[in-house]
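Quarterly update from the structural biology core.
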Amino acid sequence: MQIKSSDVVGIILAGGLARRMGGGDKSMLQLGGRRILDYVIESAQNQLATVIINANGDPQRFAEFNLPIQADIVPDFAGPLAGVVSAMAWVKQNQPNATHIITVAADTPFFPTDYVARMLESMQLKNQRLACASYQGRTQPVFGLWPVNLFDDLYKALVEDDMRKVDRFTAPYGVADVPFDELTHNPFFNVNTPADIALGEQQLANEPL
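Predicted structure, tokenized:
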């Protein structure tokens, strides 16, 4: 069966603790006069009809974006997999016809404009259940395409098996690697430290969004 972008819900993972930035939301930092999250949301909405944010804490801090906010349904800041399973729960309740979710990190302003299309195409061409982006041989586990019907398996892995690593969970199911190696700059560049803001500004100057 052909999977189309209309079958997919986009998930912006904003649940990190931002320790290297001194806490707070990295995605709300300014880059080129806009917040990082502004770039992420704009790119995601250009590729998908439905986009939600996975974030913990007070959801009101994201109210102006007018997007659904889904907190983790498992405790203890269990990492990206907690965001994935929580997003699946939201989709099952609110978009039951959607078959997949696709994840992006909230602090990656330059992720590819054809990310969704290429992930879908590659997963289906390679006949795999999941897809994961990569750049120059380095996998990007936060950038993945996931079938919602893995919800039960993933919830059990998180709650009963204390699973935390994305690739450890996904490996048995079959994952299509989707390389974006032709791009000049790392499209999955993310802001982890104050120095990264300067790097992001330099990249913006070279290739304006």
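The beta strands are 8-13, 30-31, 34-35, 51-54, 69-70, 100-105, 130-135, 138-147, 175-179.
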